[in-house]
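re: that complex we talked abt at group meeting.

here r the seqs, copy pasted straight from the sheet so there may be weird spacing, ignore it
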Amino acid sequence: MSDPIVPLYQKRIPIHPRSVKGRFRLLKTSILALAYIVYFILPWLRWDRPNAPDQAVLYDLPGRHFYIFSLTVQVQDIFWLAGVLIIFAILLFFVTGLAGRVWCGYFCFQTLWTDLYMMIEHWVQGERPARLRLSKGPWTREKLTKVGGTYAIWLLVAFYTGLTFVMYWVDAPTLVVDFLLGRAPSAAYYTVLFLTATTFVMAGLAREQVCVYMCPYARFQSAMFDHDTLIISYDQQRGEGLKGRARLGKDLKIREDRQVQGVGDCIDCGYCVQVCPVGIDIRNGLQYQCISCALCIDACDVVMDNQKWPRGLVSYTSENALNGKKTTLLKPKTFGYGVILTTATAVLIWSVVTRSPYTAMVEQIRQPLFTRLSDGSIRNVYEIKLNNKLTAPMTVGIRIEGLAGATLDMDGMERVQLAPQERLKLLARIQIPPVAIKGDDGHEQHEKHEDEKNDVERAKVTFIVEALEGATAEPIRRKVPFYQPDND
Amino acid sequence: MSDNTLNAKQKPGAVQTTGHSWDGDLQEYTNPLPRWWLWCFYGTVVFSILYWFVYPSWPMGKGWLKGYGTVDYTITDKATGKQLEKKDQPWNTRALLQEELGQAANDPKRKEMLAKVQAATPEQIVQNPQMMEFVRSVGKGLFGDNCAACHGQGGQGVVGLYPNLTDNDWLWGGSTARIQETLTLGRKGFMPAFGTVLKPDQLDDVAEYVLTLSNEAKPSEAVERGKALFQGQAGGCYACHGADGKGLAALGSANLTDKIWTIVDVSAQKTLQDKKTQITNFVAVGVNNTRVMPAWQNRLTPTDIKLLAVYVHQLSGAKQ
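got the structure back, here u go
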């Protein structure tokens, strides 16, 4: 037997991408700058909010409030988060179906942080050949300084990334001081430690391994591709010609000469491979490792410009376009995702804009279902939960309607003041004199409730909760059952 | 045999195979795992071994390996704030709960409210929405633990056995002060057995009279005879129930003029005869050691009793 032994595990081959200048690099750098400005500056923005924290964006978990500029999100509004997640998911499907892995190439934090780490690496250790030399060379003083320096800056960035994340959950200036003085809660230290470690490892060491081996999005985005989806591709026909690609050799310097000899436009310079952050060769076709960062397009454009040949040997295109067919972007799929996306966004915006400044829930206390009082009148008891969502005090009034002869007894708390963001539970009793219940229109409102025993009747009463002072909003109406013994 | 096709990099797009080939062209793909993946696996092995030492892990005979991790917690007395127990236990979720109860974000708030309620009089508590919310929340637990076994979870009681606390009729008085007294000292209901004193037809007459007090029966000759017995020395009912039949809170005697029947379930009877029978049967035997409310002064703290008094008072909806 002389079977070669196939290794079960593969060592990571380090990738040292060369830098490149071009349209897509500029776009990527702009997005990176914008994203970093937003992420790192946001916790420091102040926002005037009386009776509440003055941080523009603050996720106050113990206080159960999310402050986002002038919007305060409460626990019961958590479905907005669901709405946002649905919108993001549909947006991902929509964009990926049309333009491929745009998220991966330009917006994913793995891409952004890896990009930043590579910039730092480039700044400290130099261009690709220098880095290759360093990485292959022995541990000299130069290598130690440069690699150590890179790691040190990486660690600083990782630490500040983690610290910034924590700033979103507590008052940022206080946290930074407390953190440095060792007074912050242990959760802050653990979170920063964890995020420092993950940022350093994922962006510094693992890099493309995250996209290739860990990320589920990378894999299921492929499922949204079709023949019209924009992909980054090498123009095989133009690049290879009849006889394949060839370097710029003797008699192969001028495009017309090459075409006469049947050689394609690809001069096999390898620039597109050298700039690739995931270490693939785009000329091998669409590969699952490709994060659509478009840097190979920039690289090839630079080379083509140098040759004064037309750009586009590597370009955004689609499978249909490559096969000489028409690319159709307006398809039922596009419309479908578009409609869902628009609807979901509209619903979310409507829900946020029309949010009530307060909430009121009424729940019947069903044990006992009703009580007969000494004069024979019947009483039902309810619990009212009020929630002032504003950061200012508010006065709320409670009354009832829809049940003839009924009186409301709340021990004088029919009018109650709520402190800013206060939640309060009140007890309400409704009594009716010992006569049959009549509705507003005079008709008997009795209906036998199936779940109840035969000697119980159920009517309805409506609680009206309205903001009297401190807020203007539609009164909240809550229709609840009223039980009484069946006298028939 | 086959070629070793490990040199995938040399053939663009080629997939690496194990190198075996059967029946000439049958080959097996191989996609080797990244090496770091293997190290992660070894990492989990090391983690699990460390875990055994920190947390409870292996069964050992009748016990188990408890681990070196510990949970510190203290139990303090609610009323006095005195430290009862300080524990330093091997890690377990029960101790963890105790620890977290002591540190929970809401705990200072609860203590603050408790202090407020402790300092306030029942009258002040009743008028304050925040304190009443607290009383309902704490009171529900106290009531469920101590009172619900007899009076029911909602305080609705059982007719004939345990008074209904949700109506506005009180045998022993419904002010918070009276309820506090009832809770602290307990109550013992008493009514003599009239079966040996009055004849059956006399009992019947008294019953019919009593029913007129709450408009259940109409005046008649029997009612007049009953009235004479009730208000006279022969029956002597007025001594406890009062000449007007409204009862006396000081004695715990029932108000016979309202629609609430605590012992005899008159409301549930359809005919006058049935109602009368219910009453005569009861008046014949009376109450003797059958209706006892225990004293809670040695079982609950004064604060708990105050909280419960306000809670029960609110159940009844009675005004001070």
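couple things i noticed - The first strand of chain A starts at residue 9 and ends at 10. The interface with chain B takes residues 2-4, 6-12, 62, 206, 209, 213, 281, 283-285, 365-368, 371-376, 379, 381, 409, 411-413, 416, 424-427, 429, 434 of chain A (CB under 8 Å).
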